[in-house]
Amino acid sequence: MLLIVYVDEVLIAGDSEEDIKAVKNFLHRQYTIKDLGVAKYFLRIEIARSTAGMYLSQRKYALDIVKDLGLEGANPVATPLQADLQSYAPDSPLLTDLEAYRKLVRRLLYLNFAIPDLIYVVHTLSQFMQHPTYHWDVTVHVAKYLKGASSHGLLYSTALDISLTTYCNADWAKCKDLYIPLVGPIPLLCDNESAMYMVENPVFQERSYDSFCFLLLSKMHFLPTIAS
Questions:
Q1: For the chain, what are the domain ranges?
Q2: In Å, how far from its chain's centre is CA 212?
Q3: Whole-model pTM above 0.70?
Q4: To pair with 110 at 20 to 30 A between CA atoms, which of 34, 64, 100, 195?
């Protein structure tokens, strides 16, 4: 059973209709609630159901952003970010309307739920909330992408098992904003066996964490010098 409450909106989810009905009756006796039936819209998330599964999208919310920017007549773009865009531009003038930029980025952050394509570009833009320069033009480009991708969403299929597939193609060597000097590939360290021990033994967990931090810092050459 899952109960989500936001101000005066409540969403109940669970495997048993009888349990959901019991919770509704209890809440109604305590607070006199209004039952709106099967959820179709909650916190600007549209919920559609069919025999194929459940589809979550934020189409109306995305189009509202496009409308507020006056881009209803603009041509949509195919990607959320321009190719080979370098966000580091120290000589660019500071954006005059900082609040408009911050408000737009905050609205775009909420779209990451249903449109994962925006995660990288929006989180990059959020790093310049205090000192945005030409980044406003990038946010406008994102809004143009939303015009053609507003119907994108997440399908929870009834026919397939839910599995997580990840892909990473990060080019940190070109990222001048983070100032990360790289001369080669980054090794990934993993110890699954010790992870199982850490779950069962808190003492082992603390010691393993200290050992891992020491190993990680030594690999990154960040160990402090201790004076004798």
A1: 2-37, 59-157, 187-228
A2: 28
A3: no
A4: 34
